[in-house]
Amino acid sequence: MAYKFIDNYKEQGARKRLVEVLKKKGIEDENVLAAIAKVPRHFFFDETFWNQAYKDIAFPIGAGQTISQPYTVAYQTELLHIKKGDKVLEIGTGCGYQTCVLMEVGAKVFTIERQESLYERTIKVLPHMGYKPKFFLGDGSVGIASDAPYDKIIVTAGAPTVPDLLLRQLKIGGILVIPVGDEKSQKMVTVLKTAENDYERHVLDTFRFVPLVGDRAW
Ligand code: SAM
Fold first, then answer.
1. Active-site residues (predicted)?
2. Peptide bond preceding 149: is omega within 30 degrees of 0, i.e. cis?
């Protein structure tokens, strides 16, 4: 893929229109909308496909994976209720678009990807754009114990169940957002850790993610 890091009026205008689309679909958090308006999503696309970058659609990024739909990224980010300086574990870095949105809303991000080709690309692209999360290569279904506990955990691939180790790595008062279901569709689930071994779960809208593959996953 040939990346080009140029952000013209055309792309900036397209981002503003995307924000209006997301507002109409129900995204309300001003910080999340400002992050979507700021992160140049076309930087994750080959220039040939820049005309697709600000459509509210998922798009292939190689290795059989996708850049998530902007609505999905905004929806999951909104559910995390991120406060400036929150330690956030992201499982499924992919191309890193969600990572940038999390950092724009003030999170300190720890992000893990299991596909080496995506990991290798993202560790170059994100710092070049000015985003410096802590990158990991490996199976995020077991979390990252070395940096736990986290204020928030976001899983950007569909899981069969909520992985137990992720709950353990969440601070009390912390929130986990994860799509749970079968290979075809998942419900977005939020888990608030109210006390050690005590959780409040909410099951929300239906989405379709690529599968979370790993020890505590598919
Ligand atoms: N967050 C990305 C974005 O900003 O568009 C989209 C991520 S894509 C929908 C899901 C990613 O999760 C894929 O890159 C996939 O390789 C990764 N993945 C799946 N299982 C994983 C696991 N156990 N650990 C880490 N990454 C995983």
1. 68
2. yes
186-195 and 198-207 strand pairing: antiparallel
Residues with catalytic roles:
68
- 142 close to ligand 1 (CB < 6 Angstrom): no
Sketch the domain layout of the chain as residue ranges: 57-207
Predicted confidence pLDDT, tens digits, the chain (218 residues): 667 899 999 999 999 999 999 999 999 999 999 999 999 999 999 999 999 999 999 999 888 889 999 999 999 999 999 999 999 999 999 999 999 999 999 999 999 999 999 999 999 999 999 999 999 999 999 999 999 999 999 999 999 999 999 999 999 999 999 999 999 999 999 999 999 999 999 999 999 999 999 999 99
Q: Is the pTM of this model over 0.70?
A: yes
**Bridge partners, 181 (sequence order):** 186
Q: Is 68 in the pocket of ligand 1 (CB under 6 A)?
A: yes
Superfamily of domain 57-207: Vaccinia Virus protein VP39 (3.40.50.150)
| Locus of tokens 């300190």 | 108
